[in-house]
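Milestone M4 deliverable, item 7.
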Amino acid sequence: MRHVYYKFVSDETILNNEQTEIAKNNWSKYYKITDKNTHYISYQMKKYFAGPYEIKYNQYKKPIIENGFFNISHDNKLCVGVFDFNHDIGIDVMHLERKLHDNHVKKIFNDSEPKDIRQFSRKEAYIKMIGKGIFAINLLDIVIRDGKIYYKGILEPYNIFETMLDNYFICIVGIFNPIDFIFKEFDDAVTM
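Output delivered:
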């Protein structure tokens, strides 16, 4: 079983106003309380997943640890994270009220695919799983349809898991059995 950890954050009270090592140079970019809170929770998740191991980063700034693979995403008031001992994994969360800008749609979607936030989230989860980052890959080269991922026309060997949590769409991409996921609130996770 794989746990998908989640945490809803407040938009009224800052959980912790300390600048994490990631945010030291750009803490001021977090204007909203929810942004500071989801950043703080994602930082705590990263420390939890790494355990005693050092967190390193690839050339695209994807975190890497020795004891497995993890990925974290946040949007609006929700932060989610997933860990896998054996395979790289990607997760993305999007609030369904989020809007895509018209000028981005042409850069994200092919003519043959839906042009909505769920499809964008699927592509984000795939990109995060392969560890390249959204600016290092042409999103038009990725086509996701009927639960399958094609990159430059070639079928990729990854599974897609999708679910809703309140008004949030969550997508996970990797090598896994989709029925193995259990959702657990992150507060409970850190006390294990």
